[in-house]
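User: My collaborator sent over this chain with a note saying "see what the structure looks like." That's all I know about it. Can you take a look?
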Amino acid sequence: MGIFLLCSFLMIILYPVGIDLYLVAVPRIADALQASEAQIHTAFSIYLFGMAATVLLGGMIADRYGRRRVVLGGALIFVIASLVAANAASIDGFYLGRFWQGVGAGALYAMTFTVLRDVLSQERLATALSMINGVICVIPVLAPVLGYLILARFEWRGIFVAMALVAACSGLVNLLLLKETRPARQPGNGGAVPFALLRSPHFMLFSLLTSAGVTAILVYVSVSPLILMKEFGFTAEQYSIVMMVMAGVSMSTSFLTPLLLRRLGKHGVLALSHLAYLLAMVLLLGCWQLGGDIRLLLPGFAMVCVGFSCGFGVAVGEALDGCQHHVAFASSVLCIMQISLSGLYIWLTGHLGLTPSEMLLGSLLLALFSYLAVRVLLPWLAVREARLRG
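Assistant: Without extra context I'll predict from the sequence alone. Here is the result:
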């Protein structure tokens, strides 16, 4: 299990590195490419679009030809795309590099869930994903610091060279250590249509649950600087300290989740996760009802981190349960749903003019409604199916 955890960590790390490492250099990139900062930030959306646009094809290739090809191909694409972005002379060249970085990162992101599902039971999958999530929580804290150190010695292009080196390391380790995990096809399953998964209520409802959790954490990450620095007057240093503490909360929760799984079981952990979301809503509502009480706001933020960290791995494991012959395709659908729902939610709430606080509360409400849908609809659908068969 240790080797697969190492390989999987090096796969999934490209996704947050591609987002967080260059943010500190946005003003310098804008100056060098004669672009506005808004245009440079648009590269974030292009990166996500690159992930969403090709990840489904990558999943189908992995199910037919094997996981290693997609992992190694994704790492190679990320290396080349990072160098393209590093050598961009215009904003269009930078966009091109960012799009293909997203393609490479998306392939490895989906393969993380795929490989672990291939080799682990559902219970051990939730434990492994919790451990990986605990380590990943450090990236948003360390990446801007590392980006600053690179920027202090090199120009902004050095950051994208560093991204290429990370991807090259990931590809090399997986080339040497990762064995092919695609299960042998059983007679009669070779012609199964992967899109039949989209008609599975179990898969779709748990995919919605994971996507709602990702939406909640991404909204929290995107609105927290606006809330803390604009509404509460925090300095950049104070904001950074708060984010470090919240990253510590997420990491601690992730590493405690395996113990919780043994004590409470997967359904108990899912219930605990969404109880944390509910407590977050109560604390945040109390904060704003009292005119902005920081003593309620920060525990509310912490509960968002707890909810995501202890529930995400369990929900992913449940979604992929029973997808043995199309795990890569299912993982790709998960990735697309997570990106699409979070992107659509952020775009829609911004278009409607919701405040950052309202956006965060709405995302928590979406997560709670998704959990209720799973708890109510799945038993009802199971009873209905049993009656139809009987």
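A starting point for your reply to your collaborator: The chain has a mean pLDDT of 85.
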